[in-house]
């Protein structure tokens, strides 16, 4: 075959594959109203958590049915239900964290010891039942044993190269990495020893994890970023401000205070999402 023709066919094949992949969109199965949403989260079972500006929390199943609710009260700074069955919430104003059961009933409350952090801006649980505490006094991240209030390790955040003052809005540990969201510049990725591994430039409200990928919403595209190969792929949805991806569903919270649920299944042979 002529080399030029072969090259042209290869380019067309790649372009066609990209076009097909790009044009595939998940199937919308439900939409419901939800006003004044402050943030979103998800547990290991794929249940959606909506956190509202008045401090209330609602837990939904994959089809949008309310499973549990917490009436308005203290406004949580961070809600992390990933470590099922307990739900972790941090309250910055009170420098206190609370564990709820699956029905959102309080089972434990504890304050951050002043010896641990001068200004505990964030706290979140880790996979080995410890805490990560972000201390605003010196912008350090400390791993703490909550039973003894002993600081096990700490490091200062490397924000070199930023052109504006960081506005940190979320912290999370995942697969022995630490992820920190700055609303102005994007997602910082650190090793558990504090080495800065990467910085993903983006202006987003939330991010999450899907297997070995990190996901976030950029206008009407869900960006999937592979934590190891650093490759990316996209899935088209409606424009929104928050997104959650599970093995079965995509939840998108739109600017018009409506939540859209998409059907979204896993390609068994590749471990990738596909349209049902």
In short:
This protein has 1 helix and 26 strands. It has one helix at 3-23, and strands spanning 27-33, 37-42, 48-52, 57-60, 66-70, 78-80, 87-91, 96-100, 106-111, 120-125, 131-135, 140-145, 150-156, 168-174, 177-182, 186-191, 196-201, 207-210, 213-218, 221-226, 232-236, 242-245, 249-253, 258-263, 265-267, 272-274.
What is this structure's SSE topology?
Blueprint: H1 3-23, E1 27-33, E2 37-42, E3 48-52, E4 57-60, E5 66-70, E6 78-80, E7 87-91, E8 96-100, E9 106-111, E10 120-125, E11 131-135, E12 140-145, E13 150-156, E14 168-174, E15 177-182, E16 186-191, E17 196-201, E18 207-210, E19 213-218, E20 221-226, E21 232-236, E22 242-245, E23 249-253, E24 258-263, E25 265-267, E26 272-274
Antiparallel strand pairs: 1-24, 2-3, 3-4, 4-5, 6-7, 7-8, 8-9, 10-11, 11-12, 12-13, 14-15, 15-16, 16-17, 18-19, 19-20, 20-21, 22-23, 23-24, 25-26
Describe this structure in words.
The protein is mainly β and 276 residues long. The chain has a domain at 1-30 and 210-276. The protein has one helix at 3-23, and strands at residues 27-33, 37-42, 48-52, 57-60, 66-70, 78-80, 87-91, 96-100, 106-111, 120-125, 131-135, 140-145, 150-156, 168-174, 177-182, 186-191, 196-201, 207-210, 213-218, 221-226, 232-236, 242-245, 249-253, 258-263, 265-267, 272-274. The strands form seven sheets. Strands 1-24-23-22 form a four-stranded antiparallel sheet, with no helix packed on it. Strand 6 and strand 7 (87-91) form a beta hairpin. The longest helix is centred in the N-terminal third of the chain and has 21 residues, at 3-23. It is globular, with a radius of gyration of 20 Å. Residues 3-23 have low confidence and may be disordered.
